[in-house]
UniProtKB/TrEMBL annotation:
Pathway: Lipid metabolism; fatty acid biosynthesis
Keyword annotations of the record: Acyltransferase, Fatty acid biosynthesis, Fatty acid metabolism, Lipid biosynthesis, Lipid metabolism, Transferase
SMART domains: PKS_KS
Native source species: Siphonobacter aquaeclarae
Protein name: 3-oxoacyl-[acyl-carrier-protein] synthase 2
Active site per UniProt: 165
PANTHER family associated with the record: 3-OXOACYL-[ACYL-CARRIER-PROTEIN] SYNTHASE, MITOCHONDRIAL, POLYKETIDE SYNTHASE-RELATED
Residues covered by the Ketosynthase family 3 (KS3) domain: 3-414
Acyltransferase found in the keyword field: yes
Function description: Involved in the type II fatty acid elongation cycle. Catalyzes the elongation of a wide range of acyl-ACP by the addition of two carbons from malonyl-ACP to an acyl acceptor. Can efficiently catalyze the conversion of palmitoleoyl-ACP (cis-hexadec-9-enoyl-ACP) to cis-vaccenoyl-ACP (cis-octadec-11-enoyl-ACP), an essential step in the thermal regulation of fatty acid composition.
GO molecular function, one term: 3-oxoacyl-[acyl-carrier-protein] synthase activity
Record has rRNA-binding as a keyword: no
Length: 415
């Protein structure tokens, strides 16, 4: 079977360092930190009192109040970024076969704030079961894809993938596969998360996963730094319009790049810790490049999972060194989580956008907040510390790994 080509024709982003794609890119290239004290709730009694929150976001500027109140924050982020991407793609819905346009979204948790609010309200009452009638629709993760579909009339395959922090990586790969198999003309894909809540921060604190650098929040996300002490929780999301190449060309669409491969694997090792040899990370990158028909030497940039955890960072780099061999010193590698924090189920989506923009602008976004070299990390690796670097970028890959051992890698290529 002759597989169809798939291209990216629309982008949307709502992140801790910018509420549009242009703002997000400016934040990335200028090394802006999105971390600051938590404003969502009183965090004074928590071990971690900062996060990477979305800023200056008034949902009523995008969605009428009556509609917005029926959505959890993560769904609001999904709807807003999807609207941005669809507008960017220049879709004329009168000329689309809406039966062949789908929505495949990613969310690791879903409506955590909604669930938290309802449980706290019930627990603080007299035991009478009073719940918001929108409790369940707001909480369930698939509300994001459903509401995007309803809003735009897209009747193709519509669902949400849930694989922890790899969720939107799986969503992008599924969308890619549907289109190249000829089952869709286009798909709105991406991911969102809104876990900066008492339960989110408290739960990750209990796991000892979060940085506790409360005296210097802006520099707390320190991927590959010797003194990294955990990840910084982020929120927001991003949307991408994936489209069959000939379909896009026929309507005169702007094309950012081509998506040429996707790889998925499982560590089969531990519910929260990555495999000590980076086995799953290696395998998903290897499979992604094989799927793309590219040799490792073709890759110019790796946007890493790079969460700023003591264990995870060096294990991913081990896998990269194993896969790329001598070429590894010719790569640029960076973790944009140093700026955005970790968006959990939305991470792969915003990082895919970062990789695509690196190709478009021929610029590698930096890994900020590097102060002290880690002796366990190969000093010959170009981890793009502290400043963006200009270089030729024809192929970029983006890695995302999730609790449960889920691994994804997506390959983007200049067209």
């Amino acid at each position: 079977m002759q597989l169809k080509r798939v291209v990216i024709t629309g982008l949307g982003a709502l992140t801790p360092i910018g509420n549009t794609v242009d703002e997000y890119w400016n934040g990335l290239k200028n090394g802006v930190s999105g971390a600051a004290g938590i404003t969502r709730f009183d965090a004074t009694r928590f071990r971690t009192r900062f996060a990477c929150e979305v800023k200056n976001f008034d949902v009523q500027s995008y969605i009428p109040r009556q509609e917005a109140r029926k959505m959890d924050w993560f769904t609001q982020y999904a709807v807003v970024t999807a609207d941005q991407a669809i507008e960017d793609a220049g879709f004329d819905k009168e000329k689309l076969d809406l039966d062949r346009v789908g929505v495949i979204w990613g969310a690791g948790i879903g409506g955590l704030k909604t669930f938290e609010d309802e449980v706290l309200s019930f627990g603080g009452g007299d035991g009478t079961p009073r719940f918001n009638p929108f409790f369940i629709p707001k909480m369930i993760a698939d509300s994001a894809s459903g509401l995007i579909s309803i809003r735009h009339g897209f009747r193709g395959p519509t669902y949400v993938t849930v694989s922890a922090c790899a969720s939107s990586g799986n969503a992008l790969i599924d969308a890619f596969n549907y289109i190249r198999l000829g089952k869709m003309d286009a798909c709105v894909s991406g991911g969102s998360e809104a876990a900066v809540t008492q339960a989110g921060v408290g739960g990750f604190n209990a796991l000892k996963a979060l940085s506790e650098r409360n005296d210097d929040a802006a520099t707390a996300s320190r991927p590959y730094d010797k003194d990294r002490d955990g990840f910084v929780l982020g929120e927001g999301g991003a949307a991408l319009v994936l489209e069959e190449y000939e379909h896009a060309k026929a309507r005169g669409a702007k094309i950012y790049c081509e998506i040429v491969g996707g790889g998925m694997s499982s560590d089969a090792y531990h519910i929260t810790a990555p495999h000590p040899d980076g086995r799953g990370a290696f395998m998903c990158m290897k499979l992604a490049l094989e799927d793309a028909g590219l040799a490792p030497e073709a890759v110019d940039y790796v946007n890493t999972h790079g969460t700023s955890t003591p264990i995870g960072d060096p294990q991913e780099l081990k896998a990269i060194e194993r896969l790329f061999g001598d070429h590894v010193t010719k790569l640029n590698i960076s973790s944009t989580k140093s700026m955005t924090g970790h968006l959990l189920g939305g991470a792969a989506a915003i990082e895919a956008v970062a990789a695509i923009l690196a190709i478009q602008h021929q610029t590698i976004p930096p890994t900020i907040n590097h102060f002290t070299d880690d002796p366990d990390i190969n000093p010959q690796l170009n981890l793009t510390f502290n400043q963006a670097q200009t270089r030729e970028v024809n192929v970029a890959i983006s890695n995302t790994f999730g609790f449960g051992g889920h691994n994804t890698c997506v390959v983007f290529k200049k067209i």
